[in-house]
Amino acid sequence: MEKWENNKAWFLVLPVFIIVAFSAIIPLMTVVNYSFQDIWGPGQSVFVGTEWFKEMLADKRLHDALWRQFLFSGLVLLIEMPLGILIALAMPKRGWAASACLVTIAIPLLVPWNTIGTIWIIFTRPDIGLFGAAVNKFVAFDHTARPLDAWITLMLMEVWHWTPLVALLAYAGLRAIPEAYYQAAKIDGASAWSIFWYIQLPKMRGVLTIAFLLRFMDSFLIYAEPFVLTGGGPGNSTTFLSIYLVKIALLQFDLGPGGAFSLIYFVIVLLFSFIFYQALQRVGKGEQV
């Protein structure tokens, strides 16, 4: 009887699950329906089978967008992971200074995603932006005309926005290390590098794995920031998968190819979500051992 009473709590969240499932299933089934049809207008469509899937899988622009997405995510991880760890190591461990650092570092995470792009548009403009005015005194910098400048601006924006997440997770991992480990290392005369390599880094393995996978997934799904900042340009140099999908489905209004592309994108996300889950499971088992 006690077990049944405890399980009654699930009835309180059951309506939420039903609403979320309902609101997710209908759009998904609509996309599936579009992906197998050639739609000309309201009530005018022809069943085409897997034609749109074949077309999308053979689309060179999709391949290019996919490689740009992997390149962007790889650069994000290559910069943000070491930088976040360094920031966490440099932060004070206790006192008001630690609280002040935590609050200051977390500020970029509170800024809405669409606002981030607008902030960096103003910041990099040579006529009113501090960054743009300073850089253009030495070299011509224009993220709206040069692909390299656009990528540099995007990377700076992404690193500024999301490195605090890695730093906060790494800091939490550092604070969870018992003081006895540091005392034993001090007695043995271990150097700062030895302490980091043999004590801090292994003990942070769990939180760093979470940070790595979260940042990869989030950067792989990025849309609002590059869309507001560059619109996918100049040319197609910053057209990632999400931006290319919007161009097909909304700007070109090709609902059939857009639906097929959405499902392909969905499968890619599910694949990495599965990898994410498996990696977390392995980390958890390793820590228990």
TrEMBL record:
It comes from the Bacteria. One of its GO terms (biological process) is transmembrane transport. The keyword Transmembrane applies. It is found in: Cell membrane. The chain crosses the membrane at residues 12-36, 70-89, 96-113, 151-174, 260-280. GO terms for cellular component: plasma membrane. It is a multi-pass membrane protein. Belongs to the binding-protein-dependent transport system permease family. This is Sugar ABC transporter permease.
